[in-house]
Write a structure and sequence with these properties.
single chain; 278 residues; alpha+beta; Jelly Rolls; five-stranded mixed beta sheet; 2 helices; 23% strand; elongated; disordered N terminus; membrane; signal; transmembrane; transmembrane helix
């Protein structure tokens, strides 16, 4: 009786294991997919983008972006992140008409922190491939939670200015310059914990860049008062000497030359043949 039930029991266990593995395989892609961010109510649409880190267009999380560009352009935006925030960047590129395209193209969206370090995406299609007949291509990148502090050698995200760069990395040369339209949105989620790691960062990595503006000095910084007449340090007997600002190598060279000259005179005096009188 027991021998007959064993195969059935083993088959049931195998089926349960297979179902569990199937459920895990289905759950993993669902967990890896990132939720699409939604615009903030009443947020104004941004219609510009920068061409470098210095000219990146400033945006806020939840503020939609819609800009026209060309195939081959590098588009930059910047936003500010605080500790405890988790950001999600979603972009859609409307491609040229299929009749004017020559092949597949690969696009990418990258995020850099204030020190120009590329931040890793934990979810989303960061580098999708658009077929020749595709009308649009969608990109998204979910970042790690911004920390309040990190070790100097780590690349963990810290509070400060972040930069988004959208570009095509593998494009048919014949398509360069064709018009495209880009829609982008940065979403943010915060758990309210401004110090998720128990530490504190005194200042952000890099403040927002304002090209063409001169930063004002710190008004609270004290400036040294000019020296009054007669306050100069008196060097005594040698105050009339103006020593040249030479390096120590010059002084050693001069001292060596003097010692060599003295040694030459002494040596000549000792080795000079004495004259005999008479």
């Amino acid at each position: 009786m027991t021998m007959r039930k064993a195969p059935a029991l083993i088959s049931a266990r195998r089926a349960a294991v297979l179902l569990a593995a199937t459920g895990i395989a289905v759950a993993l892609p669902a967990a890896a997919s990132a939720d699409t961010p939604t615009p903030s109510p009443g947020a104004a649409t941004i219609n510009k983008a920068g061409t470098s880190f210095l000219t990146a267009a400033g945006i806020s999380p939840g503020q939609p972006v819609r800009v026209g560009a060309s195939v081959g352009d590098y588009l930059y935006w910047s936003f500010t992140a605080e500790a405890g925030d988790t950001h999600h960047v979603a972009a859609t590129v409307s491609l040229p008409a299929a009749a004017s395209r020559k092949g597949d193209s690969t696009w990418t969206v990258e995020v850099f922190d204030g020190l120009r370090r590329r931040q890793a995406c934990v979810a989303g299609a960061q580098t999708p491939v658009a077929s020749k007949s595709a009308a649009t291509v969608e990109l998204d990148c979910e970042l790690r939670q911004v920390r309040s502090w990190a070790e100097p050698w780590s690349g963990d995200p810290l509070p400060g200015t972040y930069y988004v760069r959208l570009s095509g990395i593998e494009l048919p040369e014949q398509e360069l310059g064709l018009p495209i339209e880009v829609s982008l949105l940065v979403g943010v989620e915060s758990d309210g914990d401004t110090e998720p790691e128990g530490g504190d960062l005194k200042e952000p990595l890099v403040p927002a860049v304002n090209p063409g503006k001169v930063l004002a000095g710190d008004p609270t910084a004290s400036t040294p008062a000019p020296a009054a007449a007669g306050d100069e340090e008196d060097d005594g007997w040698f105050d009339w000497v103006r020593w040249p600002s030479l390096s120590s190598r010059w002084y050693w060279t001069i001292a060596g030359g003097i010692l060599a000259a003295v040694a030459g005179v002494v040596g000549f005096a000792l080795t000079r043949p004495r004259q005999r009188v008479g």
